[in-house]
Design brief:
The chain has 117 residues and is mainly beta. It has no helices and 11 strands.
């Protein structure tokens, strides 16, 4: 059975940092691209960052470029999202997604990030 669980969310002041983690198991992690999405209050879910199965070619939403960094460790089947200089508009429920061509898609339940003074 697959397992995808996000952690590391919380309350942080503007300008602060958080490091989200996504732990996965139950599927061939190293064959999947991994992505972080977020859903802000009243908004649709949006892509934040994605990284290829081998750890190359990270891509970011324009709104987080230069502030967020996605990384993965295939040996530990984990993905991280380092978030720096957080702003109130980054407040959202952050989700981890595993996807690969012709393969089932797996989502986690999300971790809440709140940026407020």
């Amino acid at each position: 059975q697959f397992y995808v669980e996000e952690s590391g969310g919380g309350l942080v002041q503007p300008g602060g940092s958080l490091r989200l983690a996504c732990a996965a198991s139950g599927f061939s992690f190293s064959n999947y691209d991994m992505a972080w999405f977020r859903q802000r209050p009243g908004k649709d879910r949006e892509l934040v960052a994605v990284i290829s199965s081998t750890g190359g070619s990270p891509r970011y939403a324009e709104s987080v470029k230069g502030r967020f960094t996605i990384s993965r460790d295939n040996a530990k089947t984990t993905v991280h999202l380092q978030m720096n200089n957080l702003q109130p508009e980054d407040t959202a429920l952050y989700f981890c997604k595993a996807h690969g061509a012709g393969r089932p898609i797996y989502w986690g339940q999300g971790t809440q990030v709140t940026v407020s003074s």
